[in-house]
Specification:
With about 350 residues, this protein is mostly helical. Helices cover about 70% and strands about 0% of the residues. The protein starts with 5 loop residues before the first helix and ends with a helix.
Amino acid sequence: MNKRYTYIDALRGLAVILMVQQHLLTWLWHKKWLSYAMTFPDHPVMVCLNFAGNFAAPLFLLLAGMGSALYLGREGNRGQSLIKRGLFILGCGYILNLLTPHWFAPGSWYVLHTMGLCLMMAPVLNRIKTMHLLILAVFAVICAALLQTMLGTPLLLNNSHMNNAAMTGGLLRLVFAEGHFPLFPWLAFFLMGIVSLRWIENNSLEKLVLAAAAFMLSGIVLIALYRHGHAFATYGTFFRLFAWLPYFYPALPALSFLLLGIALFLLFLFYVMRNGLKGKISGALTLTGRSSLTWFMVHIVLFNEVLRMIGLHRTFSAEAALLITGIFIFILMYLSALWGRIEFKYGFEWLMRKLIR
């Protein structure tokens, strides 16, 4: 059996929890809102939990990059198998598109799609030198803002826009710039996953910490320039490089750098705490991470589609939404702990292992 890295599985489990709570609270709570600033005074807990959910996708992609490097480093595991796994994840993304017509269209491009595409490119990406990967990661973040400027992307994207493959550029427009999780800037997180594993294996944790600090500082500097009102940072051709928005539809460099820095710092924390991840709760978190793809698919279909079908979508108070979310997360972790005893048989991860050796 392939060696498991507890800290990676546990961090992926945290990403699952962050994702699930953000989605469920959004789909259960009856209040519809767009502004963090306007909603925070009356509902600080709900707003903070919603924002915390923004760290899920960065962690998923960061860990996918690490996983690709680990997979390619194992004896007998070749790039062709990893490409097939990427195709499997991409296929899951399109299956999810079809299962959730209230959220996605057949051509939608969500985080599973980007993860799958990155895995398909991973055999090539893992051959690139570390410094070049760092440069590519920064380029991916900056390129996102430049592409959005070129396309005239709105500063607040709705589902109709992100699902619309009929615009000029078609599906490629969604894949590279205007989908839910386009390749730019999200490729940067996958690339930094590859880099992070190299640093960890070389026992160069100081580089991981420095990179985390550098990315966070970059985001803060961009925000400061924007807030200060400098002309070049508030309007004109390159203002998107500096603009601060607390959401990533679309993702702008300031937030992307902040998320990347915090994701790297969380990775560092989980790595240094890896020997302490042996309790029941941390064990359940680890097993939840090992079944992340299955829970990803299940919770979206159950709480976004089924709730709509039975008329309970966005019908609960904040307190009820928090209670239901907490109960579901407990059930999710408990079932993961039980399921892990039979290696997650019949789940999406199990199916992928069966189909692709």
